[in-house]
Specification:
The protein is an alpha/beta fold and 645 residues long. The chain contains 17 helices and 25 strands. The strands form four sheets. A ten-stranded mixed β-sheet has the order 12-11-13-14-19-18-17-15-16-20, with helices on both faces. It has a nine-stranded parallel β-sheet with strand order 5-4-3-2-1-9-8-7-6. A hairpin with an 8-residue loop joins strand 17 and strand 18. The two termini are 14 Å apart. The structure holds beta-D-galactopyranose.
Length: 645
């Protein structure tokens, strides 16, 4: 486990580099990421390269035992390149090009961009291939699906559709273009959706396909850089850094051939008890192994919005330890210093503009110290009996077609993740199409778009004795994003043992359900169920569907299948989670205080319990007969000793 920083030597006077490297060494920094936006300093003119400054920085780090990650600088092509080749920037529907001088506006598909990007990446790889302490490569920065309408992208989208459907007739049938005179009579009529135009006005089939295409284009771009680096440094460890952006590429396929997943982790600085644990578990699930944080919260957020709250005491250290608890074995803080110039000067780093290391820096020092204490747990992994499924198509389709106020695919995941983690069990968040062997409980929220693989494996999992949870808006769409003409939840109705007779989009309204002896609130959505043999677990108390089932449980093969037709308040989800864990015979803790997160990591026979207080108030819990106290945002690992980190 190690701590690092993102460093931008190109922003600082040379005199500062040595001081910075020295302070990093003293503090315990073990890795720095550099160069991911520095193209114009690495290639100031077409074909004239200047690596001397980077050589010097890499050497300064190496002399101090600090490893280096090189970010390929392709997110910000230099202005001379835009001037010579305006076609490398993204275009909107009218052909208007994005403004040079910002970042992330290059078109991944442009052959000219690829040529130049390939050249700088090749030069970097050749230059640093033999430097032992260059331990990893980050491709570009936070790549995401782009809505570029340049000729190249439009042409490639049409080709993609031709490959998928073969003929216009087949594509028209798949998209149901009978609606709104949407029939295509020539491929030249096909365009990507326009950026920032409401998605709800487009054909849902086109939208979903475009999102798949945009994701695959991003993946192909990452693969292009990956292959290039690998051709020069066969053993290179390569990644790219991700966040949960609007046009998320398919993380599972994008990272398949990369060596590790990395995530940019900016938990909320508002002390409201919200948790980033879902994101962390999701990123660990991408390759089903430990991952990196490539950017970690270090100060007040800002720039793209008003500045946010200053991290509360404990957050800078605590959130990094929380990420480690969930499997991030390297945590790189964004950034060593606040920028004094440029658009991002108000996204704060560890050292303030004053150049006086202050409160947050002291916490960072304490973090480096804390990580040394965690050394015995190095190499440990997280094993989980509970899996939560994530489907890219579900996210794409659900996001682009509104269902009811407050209803988001990710919210369902967050609600269920919270319900289970509040009971102290490890949760893996994995691809809906992944193998489910070894799990006891599988939570499959909103299986919205048909995946035959996922439907088959959920059936098999339940048949063999697993406990499954399915929720509302499952089995709604076919692969073309059209509604399936059968009673919901269609592909899952047999295992659920009930069907949806009707539904009500409650949005911000709420209704009550009876769940055992309790009365709980539900909101957003109400599936009015009819049992085909399933036992009724919760019943509506309000409205024209009072008395109808809202939640059911069915025996299917040797297993049990719950169907949750609503969005429930936390107490209801938690009650459900408890029932499922009991059904599956899995141990859990019902006595954890609010906000206390428990993750167990194992290493052979050794087990380490990471207990984190994700809240602004002190907490206490029972641990093997003793009371264990936790300060706000503090971590304890009782197996390592009686101390707080
Ligand atoms: C990330 C990005 C960084 C920096 C940071 C803070 O999304 O990768 O370069 O911009 O956000 O805004």
């Amino acid at each position: 486990m190690r701590i690092g920083v993102d460093y931008y030597p190109e922003h600082w006077d040379r005199a500062l580099w040595r001081q910075d490297a020295e302070l990093m060494r003293e503090t315990g920094v073990r890795v720095v990421r550099v160069a991911e936006f520095a193209w114009s300093r690495l290639e100031p003119e077409d074909g004239r390269f200047d690596f001397a400054w980077l050589d010097e920085v890499i050497e300064l780090m190496g002399e101090r035992g600090i490893d280096v990650v090189i970010g390929t600088p392709t997110s910000c092509p230099p202005l001379w390149l835009f001037e010579a080749h305006p076609e490398i920037s993204q275009a909107d529907y009218s052909g208007q090009r994005d403004l040079p001088g910002i970042r992330g506006h290059r078109c991944y598909q442009s052959p000219v961009f690829r040529e130049y990007a390939g050249r700088i990446v090749r030069r970097l790889a050749e230059r640093y291939r033999d430097v032992k302490h260059v331990i990893a490569w980050q491709i570009d920065n936070e790549v995401e699906g782009s809505f570029c309408c340049c000729d190249v992208c439009v042409g490639k989208f049409r080709e993609w559709l031709k490959r998928r459907y073969g003929t216009l007739e087949a594509m028209n049938a798949a998209f149901h273009t009978d609606v709104w005179s949407g029939d295509y009579s020539a491929w030249s009529q096909v365009f990507p959706p326009v950026k920032n135009h409401p998605m709800t006005q487009y054909n849902p089939g086109l939208i979903l396909d475009f999102q798949r295409f945009a994701s695959q284009s991003t993946e192909a771009y990452v693969a292009f850089q990956r292959e290039l680096i690998r051709s020069i440094i066969p053993g290179a460890r390569i990644t790219t850094n991700s966040w949960f952006c609007e046009h998320l590429p398919d993380l599972y396929s994008m990272y398949r051939e990369l060596d590790f997943a990395s995530y940019d982790n900016y938990p909320s600085t508002v002390p409201d008890g919200s948790s980033h644990a879902l994101h962390l578990d999701l990123m660990r699930g991408v390759k089903r192994r430990n991952f990196w944080i490539m950017e970690q919260l270090s100060g007040l957020p800002g720039c793209w919005m008003n500045m946010g709250r200053a991290p509360q005491p404990g957050m800078v250290k605590g959130y990094a330890l929380q990420a480690i608890a969930h499997g991030a074995d390297t945590v790189v803080h964004f950034r060593w210093r606040c920028a004094v110039g440029g658009a991002e000067m108000y996204w704060h780093g560890l050292i303030d503009h004053s150049n006086v290391p202050g409160r947050r820096f002291k916490e960072f020092e304490a973090l480096c110290e804390a990580v040394r204490a965690l050394a015995p747990a190095d190499g440990s992994r997280i094993e989980s009996k509970v899996a939560l499924l994530f489907g890219m198509d579900n996210e794409y389709a659900f996001r682009s077609q509104l269902q009811a106020e407050g209803m988001y695919y990710m919210r369902q995941l967050a609600d269920w993740h919270k319900a289970f983690t509040a009971l102290g069990v490890n949760v893996d968040v994995i691809d809906q199409n992944a193998d489910l062997d070894g799990y006891g409980v599988v939570v499959a929220p909103t299986m919205y778009v048909r995946s035959e693989t996922a439907a088959r494996s959920l059936h098999t999992f339940a048949e063999r004795g697993g406990t499954v949870l399915l929720t509302c808006r499952s089995g709604v769409k076919d692969v073309n994003n059209n509604c399936i003409m059968a009673p919901l939840p269609t592909d899952y109705a047999d295992m659920v043992g009930a069907h949806v007779a009707e539904y009500d989009a409650l949005g911000a309204d709420s209704a009550r359900v009876r769940f055992g002896d309790e009365v709980c609130r539900i909101t957003c959505w109400a599936d009015i169920l009819e049992s085909d043999g399933a036992e009724v677990v919760a019943t509506y108390l309000d409205g024209f569907y009072a008395g109808a089932p809202a939640v059911t449980r069915n025996r299917y093969g040797a297993g049990k299948v719950y169907y949750f037709g609503v969005y429930g308040e936390a107490a209801l989800c938690r009650g459900m989670a408890e029932r499922m864990l009991k059904d599956a015979g899995l141990a859990y803790r019902a006595d954890l205080p609010e906000g206390v997160e428990l993750v167990s990591r194992t290493n052979g026979d050794a087990r380490y319990t990471f207990i984190f207080n994700n809240g602004p108030k002190p907490a206490a819990l029972d641990w093997e007969g003793k009371t264990l106290a936790l300060s706000p945002y503090a971590l304890r690992v009782p197996e390592l000793g009686d101390f707080e980190l």
